[in-house]
């Protein structure tokens, strides 16, 4: 990609756009596994070797070691969002808690939120026990407010979390100075801190988990495209896999299956990463710990300081491609790179001359009501989990564990969680869903600009209109 038109030093000489993600550039791409050798019969067939599928296999095999499990993957394990995300092992659960409460009441949602917090430690415990080195450090999550309107949403968020069972140990209100003592973000007026989050190197996590389940006896077949899923059959370009249980674990790639284009919208999210920060810049930024960083803007950003002292920062970019089409191996648009770079430098002026070395994007699954689902139909043997709306790193663990319990016909606290068995209406046909998503994010971006430029003390009406369009 040309750097013409950019400020000097904005892109490193070896800048890469795409090639899946920076995480693989750092960790190294895995050796290719063999494809499906032909038709076969197993007990459980999992379509998709991302974290949902791998966690499902892990808990199934741990609880019933004699199960014959095959995972089918078009590319390689962790090719999708599992190897491209921001590395937030957080207790955040996207979607409407009111939607969950409509079927399981307030206490059901409180139980789900507690399960999410427990899942953070569950992932850390499994990686420790299984010897997976994924640069995990649990230093918590800091959401900063950078103007009066964002500060208002911060306070509303604190009250909202308290209504759903959070205690003072779960969320701590910080002043601007207290926040800057952790991470010095320009214009910060306050922040909300939660201890329930750990930094992760996503490629290391997903590849480590893939090696663990393979060692447990799970067969992972890569370069094996599933063309359709039928009752108790997964049809691939290399043969048919028959199983009494078929689990579809494709998240943002669900739209690639026939008839599923309108089920979960494949939303795009993009990231950039800097060169390692020079010592003087790192000292100025003050990011001594491994806290994760977010904000209260409508446009949404997420960041981490990597183990080798880079800033990796992400946001939505172009949120949706017409007709649910997907990116080309993580390549993102130049204007998205520019926008994320401008945001990084606005938040961290001291890092304004640190070059960007890599940009990439990935897709996440968004149901029409923006609320995740775990489902298993015992009559047909078909199960699925997903719709994590960008908060999937921890959620995949809890969802995969839940899916395993459902398959094994266990009545557990997990199988009684309110996201089990949810039914959501489909997205609108094109061009309506494209127009809706584009309009929604245009409104959010304009709301952010108005709040920052005009010193609004309340959330812009444009953002409230966007919320109505989303159905959130």
From TrEMBL:
Gene3D superfamilies: D-Amino Acid Oxidase, subunit A, domain 2, FAD/NAD(P)-binding domain. Its EC number is 1.4.3.-. One of its GO terms (molecular function) is oxidoreductase activity. The keyword Oxidoreductase applies. Keywords: Oxidoreductase. It comes from Mycolicibacterium obuense. Residues 43-406 form the FAD dependent oxidoreductase domain. It comes from the Bacteria. This is FAD-dependent oxidoreductase. GO terms for cellular component: cytoplasm. The keyword Transferase does not apply.
């Amino acid at each position: 990609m040309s750097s013409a038109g950019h400020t000097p030093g904005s892109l490193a000489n070896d800048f890469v756009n795409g090639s899946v993600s920076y995480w693989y550039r750092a960790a190294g791409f895995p050796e290719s596994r063999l494809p499906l050798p032909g038709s076969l019969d197993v007990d459980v067939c999992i379509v998709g070797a991302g974290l949902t599928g791998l966690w499902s296999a892990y808990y199934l095999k741990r609880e019933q070691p004699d199960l014959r499990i095959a995972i089918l993957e078009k590319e390689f394990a962790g090719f999708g969002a599992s190897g491209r995300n921001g590395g937030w092992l957080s207790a955040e659960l996207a979607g409407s808690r009111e939607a969950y409460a409509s079927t399981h009441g307030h206490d059901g949602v409180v139980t789900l939120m507690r399960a999410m917090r427990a899942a953070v430690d569950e992932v850390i415990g499994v990686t420790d026990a299984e010897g997976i080195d994924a640069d995990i450090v649990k230093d918590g999550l800091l959401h900063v407010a950078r103007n009066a309107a964002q500060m208002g949403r911060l306070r509303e968020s604190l009250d909202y979390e308290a209504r759903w069972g959070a205690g003072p140990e779960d969320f701590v209100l910080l002043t601007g100075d207290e926040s800057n003592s952790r991470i010095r973000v320009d214009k910060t007026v306050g922040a909300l801190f939660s201890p329930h989050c750990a930094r992760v190197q996503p490629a290391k996590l997903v590849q480590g988990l893939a090696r663990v389940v393979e060692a447990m006896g799970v067969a992972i077949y890569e370069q094996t495209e599933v063309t359709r899923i039928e009752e108790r059959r997964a049809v691939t370009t290399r043969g048919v896999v028959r199983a009494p249980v078929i689990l579809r674990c494709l998240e943002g790639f669900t739209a690639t299956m026939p008839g599923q284009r309108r089920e979960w919208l494949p939303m795009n999210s993009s990231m950039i990463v800097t060169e390692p920060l020079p010592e003087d810049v790192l000292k100025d930024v003050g990011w001594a710990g491994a806290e994760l960083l977010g904000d209260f803007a409508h446009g949404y950003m997420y960041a981490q300081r990597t183990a080798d002292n880079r800033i990796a920062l992400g946001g939505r970019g172009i949120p949706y491609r017409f007709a649910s089409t997907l990116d080309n191996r993580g390549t993102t648009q130049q204007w998205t790179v520019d926008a994320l770079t401008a945001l990084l430098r606005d938040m961290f002026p001291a890092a304004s001359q640190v070059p960007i070395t890599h940009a990439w994007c990935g897709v996440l699954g968004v149901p029409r009501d923006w609320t995740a689902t775990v489902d298993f139909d015992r009559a047909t043997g078909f199960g699925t989990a997903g719709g994590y709306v960008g908060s999937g790193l921890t959620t995949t663990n809890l969802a995969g564990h839940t899916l395993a319990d459902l398959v094994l016909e266990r009545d557990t606290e997990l199988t009684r969680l309110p996201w089990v068995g949810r039914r959501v209406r489909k997205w609108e046909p094109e061009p309506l869903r494209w127009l809706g998503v584009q309009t929604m994010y245009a409104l959010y971006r304009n709301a952010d600009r108005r709040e920052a430029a005009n010193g609004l003390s309340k959330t812009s009406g444009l953002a409230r209109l966007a919320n109505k369009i989303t159905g959130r």
